[in-house]
Amino acid sequence: MSENAPTRLALDTAEDMFEKLKWDEQQLVESWGVYPTFNFIVTAHHLYFDWIIKGRGAKPEQTERARRLPPNGKLLFQAITEVSNGTKHWKLTRKDVLEHQVVTDVSKPEVSDYDSYFFGEMIYLSYNGYRLSMSAASALIMRYFEWIIYGGDEAALDDLSVAMLGMQADLPAS
Q1: Where are the domains positioned within the chain?
Q2: Could you read off the pLDDT of 100-124 as tens digits, one per residue?
Q3: In 82-98, which positions are buried (b, 16+ CB within 10 angstroms) versus exposed (e)?
Q4: Range from 17-21, 94-98, 123-127 carrying the lowest mean pLDDT
Q5: Cα(33)–Cα(116) distance, rounded to whole angstroms?
């Protein structure tokens, strides 16, 4: 039973919230629009930060795995957190957050690479030398959560880190 049952839906574990994120991802894949992007990003942010990092609804081993993410994985979740909070609260204003902000741009829906050419206009996140389509970002986020929540071979984590480095290397020089 939830600690504060009168104000909670029946989402009590990180696994429960991950199932909700899977549903959000399905909605995202169906349209790639602003609303499903927002829902996916907000759920991903809260699952990572509030449920797993803060240990609310997460098992200790899930929190520990999240803390062991490679730097570029943690950076992806920082970007998601900034976009989630920046959108929910209109803009980021906390001085400590602004000093470490990594997101430099969130595009309007556009067609600008393979993903959007074949799947339709989508939003792109730019941060720390990365420019990820929501298709690429959501796929990486889901794979990271799969590893954080269910565990598995450390090689899977290495593969994700290498995939992200490859995305950064493909960017044109600025």
Answers
A1: 13-169
A2: 888 989 999 999 888 888 999 999 9
A3: bbbbbbeeeebeeeeee
A4: 94-98
A5: 11
CA distance 38 to 46: 12
Q: Kindly report the average pLDDT of the chain as a whole number.
A: 87
Neighbours of 115 (CB within 10 A): 18
CA 41 to chain centre: 6
Amino acid letter, 64 = E
Rounded-to-integer distance, Cα 105 and Cα 18, Å: 27
pLDDT single digits (tens) 49-63: 999 999 989 999 999
Q: State phi, psi for 132 to the nearest 5 degrees.
A: -105, 135
